[in-house]
Design goal:
mainly beta; 2 helices; eight-stranded mixed sheet; single chain
Length: about 240
Amino acid sequence: MSGISKYYGGVRKKRLANMSIAVLTIVAVLVVLITIYGQHVGNFVVAIETASQLILVLSETPGFEKPTSRLAAKGLTDQTNITYADIPKDELLLGNGSLNDEILRRYFAYSFYVKNVSTTPIDYSAEIVLNHSSQNAESALRIMVISDEGERIYAKAKEFPESEVGKPEDHAGTDIERNYGTVPFESLTRLVNQQSQRFRKDAVRKYTIVMWLEGWDNECTDEIRGAIMRMEMRFKAYRE
């Protein structure tokens, strides 16, 4: 708790009340049909159709007692801003399912498992897509994707100062105590795009997704107060 207090004492008093990250629906698909019910729901409803023998299944538990082609993750409302150093990563990696910070409302977190139930090794893509964002809120967003293939943190490329526009966010020039690098969002709507090759038959991979609003980002201001973001994560199996 002292680390949190120290952070909030140094950050520029940015409060982002009413931030709603409605995220993530995760699907193993070749064709995705998306239906979102309501304007402020925390979960997505996704219908899938596949005509392939390349099959991925999902589960919130490593035993795959209830394998499924879709998972609904609870969103987080009234989210405030923090920084990377305040993320309890080791603790989150031990958990399964929804791991949101429901008390202090600092981050969205979700852990789940992917399994290849095809008859052969497969390749697949994992994408996080932004379906809706108001008030340019994604400019302050950080998305950390952790799996046995490593950890990557994604963020929108720098928008300030002019000489740095388009470069990866690295928080240079701020008072952040623990600097970290980021991978720029691939496009305005496709934020994360990861490719995995030769995923073995019956292999299982755990993913932990953590999202927060970086208080040291130049775009993390009161102007995005009350913003809403809606995202989904898509898995697509293929063979080269």
